[in-house]
Amino acid sequence: MAPRRISLALQGGGSHGAFEWGVIERLLEDETIEIGAVTGASAGAMNAVVLADGLAEGGRAGAIRKLEAFWSGVGDSGRGVFGDLGIWSAAFNPDWLRNTPAFNWMQGFAGSMSPYDFNPFNLNPLHDVLEKVVNFKAVRERSTLPVFISATAVKTSESRVFKRTELTSLHVMASACLPQLFQAVEVDGEPYWDGGYLANPPLWPLFYEDTPDDILIVSLNPFEREAVPKTPAEILDRLNEITFNASLVAELRAIGFVQKLLDEGLLKDEAKGRYRRMLVHAITADKRLDDLSMASKFNTDRRFLSDLRDRGRAAATEWLGSCGEQIGIASSLDLKKPFR
Asked: What 8-state DSSP symbol labels residue 278?
């Protein structure tokens, strides 16, 4: 029996991207599943290029090894990898300091500084990790996996999607550039910020390319929380989650609208050929990562990353058992319920 083909859509979220590491690893172990395309933003973009390189180098086993090497490199490189530079360490860590007057003062002080001031040389150890682990020439020339990563054009407020055949470490760094922490990354003279602001992750490239009809979204920002945030830190955390989920919610609404038109036969004959019936699935952060604060997105302790990987593996195992049989048949994500 031929493997069931899916496209992976990977959200950004700093070191929480290790959760996606676990999901991808578990999917690669299941030979009844084939990853036929991948789209991502920020940390999701990193996982996407590592996956593409690993598959090109050594198939499923090669991809598993590459993911392990990348996240081990993140753990070995220290807290600055995802932007926890000096003053931000003081502002966001340790956890016991949060929700205190001292924390609020330091957070405000940190927010008043520009990366052009506190990081004039634009140092980013993540670039070195990517260059060490990923063979970008092989990704461009040898990989057959369609890869799409997003970045936000600073001057035009537009989302830019880079494709596999043009990717370098610079494109990935553009996709992961948080403007409070790093200077804008220039690609061909155009400055970019984190892709998650406008496409987290970008789904629309999957509609127009030769990719699987099934999309599996892996989110890193909880959609729902039971408690109302009340402290400054809690409010900031929730705003961060809502902001970085907004573009995904908008795209899912658009998919749901098109599916409604198709289901109810509302499209004119000449328009039917321009739309695809996409089947959407999701492994979400809800009840899996909602015990973690925004500050933990800067945490690159190896034990923490391993815990996130284990959470991702467990989530993927659960999804395969409950929803895997719906691949190629129907969406397992109700597009009407959580996004109306």
From this structure: -
Beta bridge partners of 38: 8, 147
Q: Which two tokens stand for residue 108?
A: 């405000």
Whole-number Å distance between alpha carbons of 99 and 231: 6
Q: Judge whether 248 and 219 are in contact, CB under 8 Å.
A: yes
Least confident of 35-39, 80-84, 103-107, 181-185: 103-107
Listed in sequence order, the DSSP H helices in 77-112 are: 87-92, 101-111
Which pTM does this prediction carry? 0.89
Dist CA 159 CA 162 (whole Å):
10
**Surface-to-core class of residue 84, CB atoms within 10 Å of its CB (0-12 exposed, 13-18 middle, 19+ buried):** buried
Backbone angles phi, psi at 9, to 5 degrees: -120, 110
**Cβ-proximal residues to 303 (8 Å cutoff; 6+ apart), any chain:** none
- Coil, strand or helix at 279: strand
How many CB atoms are closer than 10 A to CB 83? 21
Query: pLDDT of 11-30, one tens digit each?
Result: 999 999 999 999 999 999 99
